[in-house]
Amino acid sequence: MPREIAKNIFWVGMHLENDPFQCHPYFIKNGNESILIDPGSMLEFDETVKKVKSIIDIGSIKYIILHHQDPDLAAAVPAIEKLIDREDLQIVTHSRMSVLIKHYLVTSSYYEIDKHDNKLQTSSGLELKFLTTPYCHSPGAFVSYEPQTKTLFSGDIFGGIEESWEFYADESYFDKAKQFHQEYMPSKDIFNYALKKIEALDMNLIAPQHGSIIKREYISGLICDMKDLDCGLYIEDKYNRELLDTIDELQIKEKTIAERDRQLFAQSKRAEIGEMIGNIAHQWRQPLAIMNTVVAIMDEKNSVNVLGKEEVSEKLHKMQEHISYMSDTIEDFLNYYRPEKDKIMFNISQAILKSLDIVSFNISHDSNVKVHLDLDESLQAYGLKNEFVQVIVTILSNIRDVIVQNILKNKTIYISLIKLDNMIILNIIDDCGGIEKANLSKIFDPYFTTKHQSMGTGLGLYIARMIIEDNMGAKISAHNIKNGAKFTIEMKNEK
Q1: 183-197, 339-353, 451-465: which range is least confident on average?
Q2: Number of folded domains that form the chain
Q3: Does a structural domain hold residue 242?
Q4: Is there a single domain that holds both residue 203 and residue 298?
Q5: 308 in a domain, yes or no?
Q6: For 115-141, how does the pLDDT look when each residue is reduced to its tens digit (9 = 90+)?
Q7: d(CA 119, CA 125)
Q8: Which residue of 112, 196, 202, 439 shows the fewest CB atoms closer than 10 Å?
Q9: Domain end among 305, 321, 338
């Protein structure tokens, strides 16, 4: 029988007698988009198929993950493909391995992780994150992390050579894993590069392709012990040096990307300060002009002794109202731009209404622009509320700029917020003519803007995407529709 090792995650392998390399396929039950991981060779084919069928119809498998291209992991794929018999079946792997996997006569299309931001998200909301672990032990090797159950499918990493196999690892597992890693990992530095990435994850369970499954209480100690292993014992020095150069190059690239993101955020914050000052000035201009006029009139009347006590009281009261409005404006913008440290559950509808309050002074107070709202006021999201407000403000501000620049009349913005299965869908739709086809694929890129340099930095939607995808684990996209554009944010229902 299959063994459930975490919610909806099953071991579907078998014990191979007198074989120190126990090969473990795993299965994630996810309705019609279920996932088979490292299905193995024909030695295990019948047993793996039998176990999967006891869980769900095998035709429910949409994805087969292959962490590397070796036959003990991938040889059974063509036979499994025939049983699944789906045109939309995809092989999830790295592009450096798909060129090799095809030689097994695999016929399905490939979902290459390095071309999909190292993520896979199904329509039901199940998400997998992939971490590349180059040369451990394949050039395109990677591991897969399921954040809901905090399970890591680690491929060859954490594998063990065991004559007397135990399903779950105990405190002595390092001794069983030691020889395997010394022989199959190319060098200590390369192996530690992979371990450093893995160590940053919050893991309840590690499910390796070989050896035993490792529970949370043994994970940190095992990683600590493995960091000191001398690996690559059978690799020529010249090749080892080449691998180390590759790792150095990867580390330099990572630092460069991190520095670029830091600079982009700093530039974005400077732009925000300028925008805040401009917004406050816009809000204050009218009340200041009114108060200046009132003071001038009072001064003129006072100079000819026709200023009455009641009129003075009335004018002072109006000025106090304008001053109070200006004070509230300052507080609103300070709250909007004030950084938050901790993620919280927040009401999405309230954040949308706050965004409309901030942008409304620019959209127009006349009848040229109407906003229609269809919001499920019960829905909540997990993240930084002010940053989410910033995303909505960015989208609405872009719509506003199109309306102003093109002198458009009688425009409508539709904002809907609904729950669909276990997802929350926010749509912001306008009828302002849409986004030029040539620009549609670039609008979330840094520094891309169609505005004059005095009006935009090209960072707004780039920062919006980072907030939504990196900070909230959600998805943002833009599409053209009839007569306009549609921005969609898809979030998990956290309730």
Answers
A1: 451-465
A2: 3
A3: no
A4: no
A5: yes
A6: 999 999 999 999 999 999 998 888 899
A7: 12
A8: 202
A9: 338
Q: State how far the Cα of 370 lies from the Cα of 244, in Å rounded to an integer.
A: 60
Same domain, yes or no: 82 and 223: yes
Residue 16 domain-assigned? yes
Taking only the tens place, the pLDDT of each residue in 185-227 is 888 888 999 999 999 999 999 999 988 999 999 999 999 999 9
Q: Which two tokens stand for residue 420?
A: 């669909």
Cα 285 to the chain's mean position, in Å?
A: 40
Domain boundary among 338, 364, 395: 338
30 Cβ contact list (under 8 Å, min separation 6): 8, 122, 124, 126
Residue 281 DSSP symbol: H
3-state SS assignment for residue 213: strand
Q: Looking at per-residue confidence, does 78 or 256 come out higher?
A: 78
Same domain as 184, residue 227: yes
Regarding whether 273 and 192 lie in a shared domain, the answer is no
H or E segment to which residue 403 belongs: helix 385-405
Same domain, 291 and 347: no
Considering the domain architecture, whether residues 87 and 140 belong to the same structural domain is answered as yes
**Mean of per-residue pLDDT scores for the chain:** 84
Does residue 391 register a pLDDT over 90?
Answer: no
Helix, strand or coil for residue 11?
A: strand
Q: Give the domain CATH number at 392.
A: 3.30.565.10
DSSP string, 474-493: -EEEEEEETTEEEEEEEEE-
The Cα 13–Cα 381 span in angstroms is 38
- Judge if 284 and 361 occupy the same domain: no
Residue 276 has pLDDT above 70, yes or no: no
Handedness of CA 57, 60, 66, 67 (dihedral sign): negative
More confident residue, 185 or 147: 147
> 271: which 2 tokens?
């732009």
Both 334 and 270 in a single domain? yes
What tokens appear for 399 in the block? 């719509």
Nearest residue to 265 via CA among 444, 463, 457, 447: 463
- Asked if residue 241 is part of any domain, the answer here is no
Residue 251's pLDDT band, with cuts at 50, 70 and 90, is: confident
pTM of the model: 0.51
For residue 78, with 0-12 CB atoms within 10 Å meaning exposed, 13-18 middle and 19 or more buried, which class applies?
middle
Determine the pLDDT at residue 195: 94
Nearest of 128, 131, 83, 90 to residue 112 by alpha carbon: 90
**Mean pLDDT value across residues 391-402:** 85
**Residues 380-403: what's their mean pLDDT?**
85
Contact 92, 33 (CB under 8 A): no
Angle between helices 216-226 and 188-199 (to 10 degrees): 150
Q: What is the CA radius of gyration of the chain?
A: 30
